[in-house]
Amino acid sequence: MSAADPDAALFAPIENPRPGFYAIVGLLMAGTAFGVYCWSRQLRMGLGETGLAMPVSWGFYVTNFVFFIGISHAGTLISAILRISQAEWRRPITRLAEFITVAVLAVGGLQIIVDMGRPDRLLNVIWYGRYQSPLLWDATSITAYLTASSIYLYVPMIPDIAMLRDRGTSPKFFYEVLAMGWRGTARQKRILSRAISILAVMVIPIAVSVHTVVAFVFSMTLQPGWHSTVFGPYFVVGAIFSGIAALLLAMIAFRWAYGLHAYLKEVHFNYLGILLLIMSLLWFYFTFVEYLTTYYGGEPDELAVFFQKWTGPYAVYFWAMGVCNFLIPVLILSFRRSIPAVGIASVFVLIGMWLERFVIIVPTLSRPRLPELATGHYLPSWLEWGELFGSFCMFALIYVLFTRLFPIVSIWEIREGREEGLHDVESRLKSYLPDYAESGATGDRS
Amino acid sequence: MREPKQSRASAVTLVQVSILGAFVLFAAGVIGWIVHLVRLSITLDDVPDASMAISLVAIPVFAILAGIVSYVVLGLVLDPEARAAGPEGDDS
């Protein structure tokens, strides 16, 4: 490693991992193994080991599924929007964001398998799936999103992989293969730029469709509390909200762990903190509209579910959701957007968004519309808590292992920013101002 | 007898093309699965219009993704200027 390399800090986790890395990997593997044990016990003993019982057939697992799929909007969507809008401050955060999407989609998808008492029956979906079911729309859109996100993660990574190849980093053959013969020729740059642009445009509607379709799983039914036209955009807003919070926490963790202070600066946290604040307000607006409409309508079944949340057995979760998603983030982020401040706000937002998914799913199932179905109450068993813990550990494990193999900050984009970004921004700025010619690039006054 | 570096470069290219082949196969598999479900819905007269509507969106998405990956992999690997630079990992 060259001592003069200004980006040595970005190669260090790959070429010289610290002992702490292996300690963290060990802890996360233990946590993941505990989650796998919980699942294996459920497989042996059946779903009766969980707190799931009729009429509440969806509990923690489906809550986790919606929550994790929501977080996936951190990456691809935020990264794609920032790329398309040519926001220069995106450069150090795009890869962090993009990998959240891929890792969390994989973990989120597994929740559905865990929720199935008989996972082997998943094969029936492949052979006999019916496209009139929103569940199959979900399977299709999540597959498309995971595929598109993986490509969108990999393609911008090629120049960085070529750098690792050229540095002789082990495993050499692995980097040689994945570098795809990258030499940085003009033609290769053109191909890469074109592919990234197409993917960035393509991935936005896919991302929006994914969480809209997740919302359709609920809103296409006639269940009280679910049958709502606002659910699609409400879920998308919530997903972006939780995604930004997850991204901020990942930024804080890796900034601290890998000493990336020079790359992830206060300004990045400030900008994302503003976005988080805006999303908090937007989330509150959607929540207010949703619940006011239900209350004003006064339909008895809807009101029964409404009061389950408002004053009934799920009131604690409901009000905690409001405090975590709105009150605390707005109070903090309106006045302070320092790194600790956005970190605290993000933790509350993630807790609040998980509670939001829970509050949407469980109270409706506990008070079904059909009179022949009894009402019920849901309390998760330790197995479900264990699976939730294991899922978080698995997500963190996948993420940490990724940083052992690939730079967590896009090095070539940082270098491009240093070499060309300043000039580009100046040219663009001049093109916006009335005192300069339309071309702007020359800076000639008209 | 081939130079070891040339053999290594050939092995690298072979794996790269295999990765592309695997991805195209995956995309074709998903498209085949969707077509199978559409055919099943038509055979059973089980809301075939919903199946066709979704397939009209999903099939092009996977086809475009396969196209992009092929464009990137073949475009980068077969770039004449890059190939002229010699076996990979040569000039650090």
Description:
The complex is a heterodimer of chains A (446) and B (92). Chain A is built from 17 helices and no strands. In chain A, helix 5 packs antiparallel against helix 7 (134-154) and helix 5 (94-115) runs antiparallel to helix 16 (382-405). Chain A is mainly α. Chain A has one domain: Up-down Bundle (Formate dehydrogenase/DMSO reductase fold), CATH 1.20.1630.10. Chain A has helices at residues 8-15, 19-45, 60-71, 75-84, 94-115, 122-128, 134-154, 158-166, 172-178, 186-219, 231-258, 266-297, 300-310, 315-335, 339-366, 382-405, 411-432. With 92 residues, chain B is an all-alpha fold. Chain B has one domain (2-80). Chain B contains three helices and no strands. The longest helix of chain B has 40 residues, at 4-43. Chain B starts with a helix and ends in an 8-residue tail after the last helix. The mean pLDDT of chain B is 86. Chain A binds chain B through residues 126, 128-132, 136-137, 140-141, 143-144, 147-148, 151, 155, 158, 165-168, 172-173, 176-177, 179-183, 185-188, 191-192, 194-195, 198-199, 202, 206, and chain B through 8, 11-13, 15-16, 19, 26-27, 30, 33-34, 37-38, 40-41, 46-47, 50-51, 54-55, 58, 61-62, 64-65, 68-69, 71-73, 75-77, 79, 81-83, 85, 88-89, 91-92.
SS element count, helices of chain B: 3
Summarize model confidence as the mean pLDDT of chain A: 89
Shape of chain B: elongated
The overall number of domains of chain B is 1
The CATH superfamily of chain A bears the name Formate dehydrogenase/DMSO reductase domain
Mean pLDDT of chain B: 86
Computed CA radius of gyration of chain A, to the nearest angstrom: 23 Å
Gap from first CA to last CA of chain B? 26 Å
Count of the domains of chain A: 1
Outline the low-pLDDT stretches of chain B: none
- What is the overall number of helices of chain A? 17
**Rg of Cα set of chain B:** 20 Å
H/E element string of chain B?
Answer: HHH
Q: Summarize the biggest pleated sheet of chain B.
A: none
What is the element string of chain A, with H for helices and E for strands?
A: HHHHHHHHHHHHHHHHH
Structural class given helices, strands, pairing of chain A?
mainly alpha
Largest sheet of chain A: none
